[in-house]
Structures are given as C-alpha cells and as structure tokens.
Amino acid sequence: MSDHDYLQKLTEAGASIRQWAEQAACRFVLAESCTSGLCAATIGSQPGISEFFCGSHVTYRNDSKRRWLDVQADDLQKHGPVSESVATQMAEGALLATPEAQISVSITGHLGPQSPDGMDGVIFIGVAVRQSDELLTVAARFELPEAIRSERQQLAAMKALSCLGRVLQLQIAVQQVCQSTRPYYVIGNPQILALLPGSFNPVHQGHQQMVRFGREHLSGEVHYELSVENVDKPDLTQDDCISRLLSICLDGSIVLSRAPTFLSKARLLGKVCFLVGADTIGRIAETRYYADENGRDKALQELQELEVCFLVFGRTMDDSFLTSSCNQGSFTELADLPLPATLAAICQGVDSEEFREDVSSRDLR
Which of 239, 215, 213, 241 lies closest to 226, judged by CA? Predict the structure, then answer.
C-alpha cells in the first residue's frame, strides 16, 4: 500500500470518528506510544473535532508513561512497556487525568526493527470507559504484518482508530437500543449470516471458540448478539450492555437488539444460523415459554418458514438445562434431546470430538 493509500484510509477513519463522536455525544482522550502522535494528528485534521477530542498523551519512554499516566514502575519492569497491563494503565491514566472525557484509548507496541523475541509487530490497545460509578478497562493484543517501520506505524494507528470507532459505536448502540429508538444496531460486518446469542456475563473462551468454529464451518462472519430484553431476567441497563460488550467490540462483530426470543430475532434479522448450546435448544422446546403447546408449535413452524437453522454444541447440564458445575449434570448433545420434529429438522449437532468446551458464565460470576 502506498503512502497516499495509507493517508486516505487514515483520513477516512478520522472522518468516521468525528461523525460517531457527535452521534454518541462523547469526548475522548488518547495515550500513544508506538504511534507517536499519529492518531492525534489524524483526528485533529477533522474540522470541529475539538468539541469531542480532548488531546493525546504521547508517552514514548517508560519514564513518561510512569510520570504522566501513573503506569506502575513494577509493571513496566515485570511485563514490559508492550503488554496488556501497561496498555490498560495507560488508558486508565489518561481518562483519570481528563475529567471531561468519557472514553480513552491507548496503544503501545513493537514496530521493529530489533524487537524482542516473539514480539515483532505486536501491539496492545487499551480502552477505558467512564461509567456511572466506576471506570471499565479492557485491552486487546494484535499482530501487524511484516512491513517497514513507517508502514507498521500507520497500520498501528489505523487499528487504534478502529478500536476507538468501535467503542464510540457501542455508545451509540446502547443509547439507541436501550432507549428503543431503534430495534437493533450492528457493529462490524453489516452482513449478518450467523449469530451467537448470549448474555456474555462474562464473555469467556467458550464463546470465543464457538465463534471460531462457526467461522470455519459456516465460511463466514459470526456476530455476537446481546438482547437488552430477556424472557427470564430484567432488562439490561446501558452500563450493563457496555460492560458485557466492550472487550468483544474491539475486534468482533456485534448485534445489540431488543429481541428476547429466537422468533423475534429471526423476524428482525431474517435468515440466519444461530450458534447455541444444547441447554438453549432444550429451553426452546419447553412450552413454558409459550402460551401453550400449540403456541410453541406455531412458533417453531414460523422459524422453519423463516429458514433459520441452529448449530448445536453439546453442554454439561442437568435435567433443568442448568450448566453450572454446582449441579450434577452430564454432557448432552443434540441427539440426546427429545425435541419436537419441527425443531429437530432445523438443527445440526456438533460432534464432541470436533468441539467440546465445558466453561460456563455462571461459574465465572
């Protein structure tokens, strides 16, 4: 890619951030190491951006990170300046030093040459978000392709700006969906072919591995889907949605909706494949979620007519479909469930030899 192409992409990213910041009515601050102010320069080129962009801490050396952003010297020594811990503290320090900002994004990385072993092209991006009564922080690791240092710096800046853009979109999504001004909002790939619905409280490796498996076997993107409404629990608040989706949105595609049932999801999003556990399929077949058995059968028939399908993963669960290790359960696959024929016809089971992950969000809470 030529310098002109990089400049164009950076300019486009800056314009998008300007637009999303205005929609979200959010101010933000940056903390940059390896990009050395390139993110700030890109954003600062946008007219009127001073309403939302508070500034950037360019902390290239460790002493600057420690003095300006309160990054702990012990962590710099133990984990190194290019680490998840340092990226998180950079973002948190920048936000704490900027009371008018709601969001901060940090970046630190090894762009080469002469990077430490195993760290060439590795960057960490940290995010801090100011919530009602706390700061929420996350960080993510990315690897840049082989390139000369100047190109890697531009790629790193684009990745940091992409993460900032996604966090701003998350703010817009929770505002609009939680306030019912729109039924759903998509972050990432606009084409929705497959969904992993969940509460993501918290998101864990089982969710991530299901998404990877779905991408490989369905040959396309898998979106994480969180519904503000739930048939068994109170509605989620805006803070709930942000805390559950923040780490996912940095690199994954997301749908935030007001669709608590699979039928309402299908009516809203059309022909999709749902990635679910055997516990979820078992609950879909229960009549207690419908007016009666006839109501259940009509709903299942409509799901079939909408051409949705279910990719079903085995789960360790009890007879009540609870997956916590506190309950005496056994590993159950699709073939073990007595399902109505209409539901069974639109389900495909995943063999346990191909995929098995027993972690449960309930156990992690």
Answer: 241
